[in-house]
Amino acid sequence: MTPVYGHMPLFDPREGHTVVEPPGPGAGWWAGASSTVWHDEEQCFYMYYRLRRPRELGRGAECRIARSMDGLHFEDVWRATKDDFRAESVEKASLVVTPDRRFRLYVSYVGEGRRWHIAMMEARRPTELLPASAVPVIGPEDIGAEGVKDPYVIGVGAGWYMIASYAPSPPSPAERPDAMHATGDVYATGITKSHTGLAVSADGVRFHWVGDILSPGDGWDGYAARISSVLRRPPLFVAFYDGGATVAENYEEKTGLAITWDLRRYVRLTRDAPALTSPHGSGSLRYLDAVEAPGGAHLYYEYARPDGSHELRVNRLEA
Questions:
Q1: pLDDT of 131-188, one tens digit each?
Q2: Cβ neighbours of residue 172 under 8 Å, at least 6 residues apart?
Q3: Range of the domain at 107
Q4: Count of domains in the chain?
Q5: H runs (alpha helix) in the chain
Q6: Which of 18, 35, 104, 249 is 20 to 30 A from 202, comparing alpha carbons?
C-alpha cells in the first residue's frame, strides 16, 4: 500500500449541522467568519462569529462570542456592533486563549482612510472584552498595502504567527483612483487582488510583516487566495483557503486545500477546482475554521443557502 502522509479526509458539506442562522433571508445576509477555540480547562468551546447585512443596509453589523459544551449548540455570551469599534464594518476575527488563560480577540474592521485594519483586545473572560480597549496591531500602512484583514492567529514556539488576507497596492498611482476606497472595501473593486501574508510577533501585540505566503493562482482561484485556518496533520499542516476566479466572486468564495511543513511555504492541492462548495446559490463555502478538540476536529464554515444567504455550519471528523 502506498504511504499517505498527513491524510486529510474531506466531508460532505450537506451533512453539516447548522450552528447559526443568517440574520435575514436572501443575498447579503450572512452568519459566519468564525474563529473557534477549545478551552481545555473549562472543557468547552468558545466561538467568535460575525453577522452581516446587505451593503445597502450597513454591511458587517455586529460580532458575537458564543459558548458550547458539544461544539454544536452555542449560547451567546458577548456581543459588539460595528459602532462599538467606530467602524463601517467588522469581519472575521481570531479568538485566542493564551498560555496564561487570557482571551485575546484580533478583529478586522474598516478604519482610518476607509481601509481594512486589524486590532486586538484582551481580557480574562470573553464577556470582559471591550472594543474601546482595542489596540491596533497591523494596518495597511505597516505593510505597504491597500488593506489587511481576516486574521488567523496561532501560537508557534514562544511567539505568534498571524496569517492574514491583504490587498497589495497597485503598481502605479494612476491605477489607484479615489473611488478605490469609496465603498470602504478595496477587495470589491477588482483593482487589486486578495493575497495571504504572514506577520510574526514575540508578544502577540507588536507584529513584524514577513510577506506573501499564498498568492492567487491562474484558474478558479485567480482573484483570491485567502487562508482561513490550518490543521496539523503530522508531519505537515493542511491549510484551507478561500478562492475566487474574478472579483465577481468576491464575498462568494469556495474552499481550496494547500499543504505546508513550515507555515511559510505552501503547495496547492486544488489547482483545477475547489475542494469544498455548497450545492446551493453561488456555491460559496468559505471561512473554514478548523479546531482540534477531544474526539476529533470540528470544521466550521460559512455556507450558501438556496436563497443566497449564508449560514454557519459545522462538520465533525472523528479522531
A1: 999 999 999 999 999 999 999 999 999 899 999 999 998 766 555 555 555 555 666 6
A2: none
A3: 13-318
A4: 1
A5: 140-143
A6: 35
